[in-house]
Amino acid sequence: MDPVRAVVPCRACLSGEDLDWLGGGRSVSLALGLMTTVEVVAEPASGGEGGGWEEEVWAFLRARVPALDEGPPAVTVRSEAPAASGLSSSTARIVALFRAFTDAAVQGRRVSDATLTRWAYEFEFAVFHGGGMDHLAVVQGGALLLEGRETGLPVVRERLEFPGEWAVVVVDSGTRKDTGHHIRDVRAQLAAGDPVLAAYRAAADEVSGRVWEALRGRDLAALGAAMADGHAAMRDHQRMSTPLLEELREVALREAGLPLKLSGAGGGGSLVGVCAAAQVRETVARLARALGVSHPAARVIPTTAASGVRREPVPVVEVR
């Protein structure tokens, strides 16, 4: 069998954490060029590694795609995104497995992006009970304005290409997130009608509107201010930040003039900021030097926006 490869971006949440599954609010996602690659091969390639989830994804597919073998083929998995960092590296891996497995199994045709997104969401929801922002973000790519729903995938209201004159800076704190615990806590708030959660939802929705208008208007200063306010809402209403993350934000603003926002929920993970592409090298160098002294475990990772897993048109099949 010839190798079949799927390459999937991760994503940053620019605004509206949790609103994709809380409903009644907007969120903004951005696919990032930190890629996860899954390759289906006859034998595992040297230097690669299995990424987990292979057996579970294959079992899910066997219930929906006829005539699959009993067990999954061998795969190698490589990821450029830091794990458990709020950049949706786990969803990128799951989507890449779905894409690679289905491309290998459905010869001559391709399971549609809509079907792939729905399957990946249903698979991951059964485990984590979270939302569908991540799945839409990594499949569709670019920047998405999403309207959340309490059940099912959020609605994509608009999609924009990220300005080419901008770059993204990721600051990986080196601390892992606990998203599962966070989702359980927030679902309990939702069931109880917690006014604190309602206040957060209103604040985050308002910020998402400002983030989207800044993207549409290519206003970098307005985007940074809105993302900073989005972080403040996460921290002050829902306690999603940590002292370490706040220290990293202070260093970035002081030493590089870069506003940072926590991406994803759960206490830990990565912060993201946006700067002019022409200044990204200097911004990263200044920030890396400063953090190398004060927070040597943190990593500064420059990246760009990504276009998602979509590719040239080929015959597709919708599978229910």
UniProtKB/TrEMBL annotation:
This is Galactokinase. Keywords: ATP-binding, Cytoplasm, Kinase, Lipid biosynthesis, Lipid metabolism, Magnesium, Nucleotide-binding, Transferase. It comes from the Bacteria. Pfam families: GHMP_kinases_C, GHMP_kinases_N. One of its GO terms (cellular component) is cytosol. Residues 74-142 form the GHMP kinase N-terminal domain. Gene3D superfamilies: 3.30.230.10, GHMP kinase, C-terminal domain. It comes from Streptomyces roseirectus. InterPro entries: GHMP_kinase_C_dom, GHMP_kinase_C_sf, GHMP_kinase_N_dom, HddA/FKP, Mev_gal_kin, Ribosomal_Su5_D2-typ_SF, Ribsml_uS5_D2-typ_fold_subgr. GO terms for molecular function: ATP binding; mevalonate kinase activity. Residues 213-285 form the GHMP kinase C-terminal domain. GO terms for biological process: isopentenyl diphosphate biosynthetic process, mevalonate pathway. Pathway: Isoprenoid biosynthesis; isopentenyl diphosphate biosynthesis via mevalonate pathway; isopentenyl diphosphate from (R)-mevalonate: step 1/3.
